[in-house]
Amino acid sequence: MHKQSLSFSVRIARTRNDVQAACRVRATSYGHHVPQLGEALLEPDLLDADQNTVSVLCVDKATGSAVGTARFQTNAGGMLLIEHSVSLPGDMKDDSRAEITRLSAVPGADPLVKISLMKASYLFCLATQVRWMVICSRKEALTRQYRRLGFTNLFDDGRWIPMSHVGRIDHQVLNLNVTAVERTWREERNGLYDFFFNTVHPDIQLFSTEPALPARGRVDWKAPAPAWLSPAGGMRNSPPAVRAPSAGAVLVS
User: Fold this and answer.
1) What is the C-alpha to C-alpha distance for residues 27 and 34, in angstroms, rounded to an integer?
2) Which of 21, 115, 184, 216 would be 66's cystine partner, CB 3.0–4.6 Å?
3) Among 192, 24, 16, which residue's Cα sits nearest to residue 107?
4) What are residue 153's phi and psi, to 5 degrees?
5) What is the per-residue pLDDT across 161-212, written as a single tens digit (0 to 9) for each?
6) Is the separation of the CB atoms in 143 and 133 below 8 Å?
7) Cα dist from 40 to 22, 147, 221, whole Å
8) Alpha helices, DSSP H only, in the chain?
């Protein structure tokens, strides 16, 4: 086991400033290809304030700027967003699960940002006893990346499903059994095994009480609920339509 220092820190977004910084990263990353979506992501939404949702930030050490983020929603309080568009199989529906959304990095960020966010996702699920991780992918290239991380298509035919919470843009749905990752990667000699399991990253501190960015108070904003999302997490109407990204766009929901 060896130790590796990163050019950024990875911490939970604990304050209003932290969450707003995460929103700016989302808006910059997504809005690079889909301007309407970028504008919509500049402000926190209802899920950002939900007690069963956690956002993490990657903060560049040299500049103090947020360069990456991801959001984890667990099913402790009810259905995941993705479950408003697709029915999960029984073994997942009856077990603990988390959906990873808003996985993004600013253009030019350290290439290790997204991989570190995935390691943070894995560590978060282990620590909170979440067995299943689910994620949706807008592009086949992203789907291949997730498969290299151990995810498998939820459906054998790899079907594309319009996601209600992403403007009904077609996505593939993938899942990962968190409890099997270490064994599977070791047996397959996965190239990321050492990064995930044989390397200590002190800069990934999910359970530190230190805020990722200078704090100005607790997360106490009153996030306006989108018209299509009820306070209980249920869908009322279809979310607003979003123009589909161009063929070259990189969009992770």
Assistant:
1) 9
2) 21
3) 24
4) -65, 135
5) 998 877 788 999 999 999 999 999 999 999 999 999 999 999 999 986 555 4
6) no
7) 13, 29, 17
8) 16-31, 35-40, 90-93, 112-127, 140-148, 181-188, 193-197
